């Protein structure tokens, strides 16, 4: 479903930009033709700039380090390049480029489950899937749907994926999750009987304690990610105290979606800071990839 929506959005914006440019050009307004088309295609750049301004303002007394202006500017530029690659290409048009890999000889090899975040699909992980395929690692990447439903609705999807990996390998999988995907995994993991079904969880830019930006959310899963939301409190109450020792959390002070930065860490977890890296960009950083390979070895 999400791939279809993002195809429509991407092609629709390009068509709108082209029509505007043609109509304005024919009317003799060359500057309007060029300016309007650029605004339609690159308007997201301004939206990202507003997000970075908000994260700067919302840092407040957060215990994490404050990003410098230079770090924020570099992170903004990195996100400007990363966002269209993910949302306008990989997810709408290439989400099935890499199939799940459960080879006949997977027995005894640790598998990897990849779980995306809000308004994403398995296409987010194309780079990871290519690398896992090249290394002959059993791997699955899920699509969390309904896209705008409750995070609780993703439990069965994750449970089925973990079951498939366990059946193929005989081992509990390593799970890597980006953004909201980390909360979806924690919610599934909190159910009885799942304690030994996870080797380790690596979260990347996950709003473990919600995010300031979610106060503007209109969707159910977005509201669940508000800071101090009843849903987050109920999730924390379901988890054993020692659970976080099996979690590695990657977070950053330039995350334009999950902020303040300390909302993306867990007490007792292996919390690792990625300075100067934005939200979507974090999923393609080498540090989480290397941490996953270290766990597999």
Give the key terms.
single chain, 297 residues, alpha/beta, Rossmann fold, 2 domains, six-stranded parallel beta sheet, 9% strand
Folded structure, characterized:
The longest helix is centred in the first third of the chain and has 29 residues, at 30-58. The two termini are 36 Å apart. It is built from 10 helices and 6 strands, in the order αααβαβαβαβααββαα. With 297 residues, the chain is an alpha/beta fold. A 6-stranded parallel beta sheet has the order 2-1-3-4-5-6, sandwiched between helices. The mean pLDDT is 96. The radius of gyration is 20 Å and the shape is globular. The protein folds into 2 domains: 2-93, no CATH class; 112-296, Alpha/Beta hydrolase fold, catalytic domain (Rossmann fold, 3-Layer(aba) Sandwich). It has helices spanning 2-26, 30-58, 69-93, 126-134, 155-169, 180-189, 220-224, 230-238, 279-282, 286-296, and strands spanning 112-115, 139-141, 174-178, 200-204, 247-251, 270-273.
Please describe the topology of this protein.
Elements: H1 2-26, H2 30-58, H3 69-93, E1 112-115, H4 126-134, E2 139-141, H5 155-169, E3 174-178, H6 180-189, E4 200-204, H7 220-224, H8 230-238, E5 247-251, E6 270-273, H9 279-282, H10 286-296
Parallel strand pairs: 1-2, 1-3, 3-4, 4-5, 5-6
Helix pairs in contact: 1-2, 1-3, 2-3, 5-6
CATH architecture descriptor name of the largest domain: 3-Layer(aba) Sandwich
Give the CA-CA distance, first to last residue: 36 Å
Give the structural class: alpha/beta
CATH homologous superfamily title of the largest domain: Alpha/Beta hydrolase fold, catalytic domain
**Series of H and E elements:** HHHEHEHEHEHHEEHH
